[in-house]
Specification:
Layout (H helix, E strand, L loop, with lengths): L8 H8 L5 H29 L15 E3 L5 E2 L17 H11 L11 H14 L9 H9 L7 H17 L2 H11 L9 H9 L8 H10 L12 H17 L5 H8 L17 H13 L2 H4 L5 E4 L3 H19 L8 H7 L7 E8 L5 E5 L16 E2 L5 H10 L9 H6 L3 H10 L18 E2 L1 H12 L3 E3 L4 E5 L5 E4 L4 E3 L3 H8 L3 E3 L2 E7 L5 E7 L3 E8 L9 H15 L3
Parallel strand pairs: 1-3
Antiparallel strand pairs: 1-2, 3-9, 4-5, 4-15, 6-7, 8-11, 9-10, 12-13, 13-14, 14-15
Helix pairs in contact: 1-2, 2-6, 3-9, 3-10, 5-6, 5-7, 9-10, 14-21, 16-18, 16-20, 19-20
């Protein structure tokens, strides 16, 4: 009579496996059991961690980028209305298909984690011995951006996976797609797809053409480098790559692609761009796009502390406007605005531009690119205009650097001691790019420069000959308050301290502030230079289309009054 015995792994292996494999099989079985228990424990650990996060945060989008002056006073943000949200029905199907083709081909099929892609990335990371591949799905990117997980580590990746599974269980695919597009950064100050559509193409998301959809999707991988405002060729290449992926997936054919590529690209003009509201913030936005990489600003909600001194900026704008209006209200003013309106012609408004640079650091304390931003967004601080006698300090600096005598008020005699080539060399070191004449006319100021260049050059004279690289952003924090960028002043030696002092001596001494006021020989450009205890200010006055402003004596008198009202800075 036989006795029944349960079949155990040991008896099974003894029956079916050679004896020499019994020990290895037992060990493999034990490792499998231990590994399974470990995986279950690991999964439970990260599931418990993920349960601590509030899934409602996924739908709570951060505010748009906030801007502050150097003292922490909030400055009006670009766009004025913050982030604009879209609903799923407002998103074109072609945009959805383009996004999936470029970022997550199996978005509507996987559970939030693309296992095949994850395994492929894991193998690559082991080969590179670094986290070079992420295999992030749209759901994973949404989870990462919603909960501010940036550090690259296995712990973060496991937690991200657990959070992604929770996101997938809490929201539908359509909701995830919508939240993703509403949350990410598209460059040029555009937080979310709706602001991006308005900023780049001047239309709402639902009105985007197929070509515009493909281009805007291409921007996602590099909002800084692929912005069509910054590099149209790169943006077009990204659009084409997106269309090629759509062909590879069988969504469109070659003929369809060719029709899209043939569409004219109609970007919003400089005058209509909604992403800036002032000349100063326009400069801040340009610098912000240069500083940050795409991964740092995709989620928006940044806090940008600028170097702008709002009180000084407002004071400078107020006094400049007052000076210009005083000039326009004089009976002898030869450019009456009222007469132009009566004649039905476009009035010629006198313009101005001003930059104040902190001498010791290069920080921009004030930046005014024109008289009225709503009338013209052209930034005149970056436009070169004739200098005339405003160039004398740099002629003096070149002579003093070579040990020659500085003759205030006599730039030609001062310059003749060293020649045009030496003056050019020194002026370039101070930040003035030129071009320069190779004749004695250079000493008379036959050279052009921008107000920004003049401010930096003047600051160099006030900083013992050390030239500081200009910057307008002091610090950037992300939505969680973490510092992700902090500026460091960059100084280089342009001339000796003694030569800098001698050069500044040609400016008028007015109670601790060195000043210059005057017009060019053509009377088409007027300049004011102010070298104060802490800042160097360069101010230009004139018409966009070079025109005689007013007789030089009256201009100088007006600007002298303006400088006196400003006082020290």
């Amino acid at each position: 009579m036989s006795t029944w015995r349960p079949i155990t792994p040991s008896s099974f292996w003894k029956r079916w496996l050679p004896e020499w494999m019994h020990g290895g099989a037992v060990l493999a079985f034990q490792l499998t059991v231990v590994g399974s228990i470990g995986l279950v424990g690991l999964a439970f650990f990260y599931y418990s961690l993920a349960m601590r996060f509030d899934m409602a945060e996924v739908a709570k989008l951060p505010v748009g980028t906030l801007y502050y002056d150097r003292k922490g006073v909030e400055i009006t943000a670009p766009g004025g209305e913050g982030r604009r949200l879209v609903k799923r029905e407002d998103i074109p199907e072609f945009l959805v298909k383009s996004l999936c083709a470029r970022e997550d081909a199996r978005f509507f099929e996987h559970c939030g984690v693309d296992v095949r892609g994850l395994l492929r990335a894991t193998v690559r990371n082991f080969k590179d011995w670094d986290f070079t591949q992420g295999a992030s799905t749209l759901s994973m990117q949404l989870a990462r951006n919603s909960f501010k997980m940036k550090q690259k580590s296995l712990h973060r990746k496991f937690l991200e996976i657990a959070l992604t599974l929770r996101v997938e269980s809490s929201y539908s695919k359509e909701e995830i797609m919508t939240h993703y597009l509403n949350r990410i950064y598209f460059g040029a100050g555009a937080d979310g797809i709706e602001q991006a559509a308005r900023t780049y193409f001047g239309k709402t998301t639902k009105d985007l053409s197929e070509g515009e959809c493909a281009m805007i999707v291409g921007i996602i991988r590099g909002p800084h480098i692929f912005s069509p405002f910054r590099n149209l060729d790169a943006a077009v290449e990204q659009r084409n790559q997106t269309l090629n992926r759509l062909i590879a997936m069988g969504t469109i054919d070659q003929a369809h692609r060719d029709r899209i590529v043939a569409e004219p690209i109609k970007l919003v003009s400089e005058e209509r761009r909604e992403s800036q509201t002032s000349y100063a913030l326009q400069a801040v936005r340009r610098e912000l796009d240069r500083i940050l990489e795409d991964g740092d600003i995709r989620s928006g909600g940044l806090q940008v502390q600028t170097t702008i001194d709002a009180a000084w900026q407002n004071r400078l704008e107020l006094e400049l406007t007052r000076a210009v209006e005083d000039l326009e209200h004089e009976k002898s003013w030869s450019h009456p605005i009222e007469a132009a309106h009566v004649a039905g012609t476009e009035p010629a408004y006198i313009q101005y531009a001003a930059v104040t640079t902190e001498t010791r650091s290069g920080a921009t304390l004030a930046l005014i690119g024109g008289r009225n931003y709503s009338h013209s967004r052209f930034d005149r601080t970056r436009s070169s205009r004739d200098l005339g006698s405003a160039f004398e300090p740099f002629v003096a600096a070149a002579a003093a650097e070579r040990g020659k005598l500085v003759l205030p008020g006599k730039p030609i005699q001062t310059g003749r001691q060293i020649g045009p080539a030496e003056v050019e060399r020194l002026a370039k070191r101070c930040g003035i790019a030129g071009p320069f004449l190779q004749t004695e006319d250079l000493f008379r100021g036959s050279v052009a420069a921008t107000p920004l260049e003049m401010s930096v050059g003047l600051a160099t004279l006030g900083n013992q000959g050390k030239r500081a690289r200009p910057y307008v952003i002091q610090e950037i924090r992300d939505a969680a308050g973490e510092v992700i960028y902090k500026a460091k002043p960059v100084l280089s030696s342009a001339l000796s301290p003694g030569a800098a002092v001698d050069a500044a001596s040609v400016l008028k001494n007015a109670g601790g502030t060195r000043t210059f006021t005057g017009a060019t020989g053509s009377e088409r450009d007027a300049w004011t230079l102010r070298l104060g205890p802490g800042g160097a200010t360069a101010i230009w006055l004139g018409f966009d289309k070079p025109t005689v402003i007013a007789p030089e004596p009256r201009l100088k008198s007006l600007l002298d009054e303006f400088v006196e009202r400003l006082g020290n800075r």
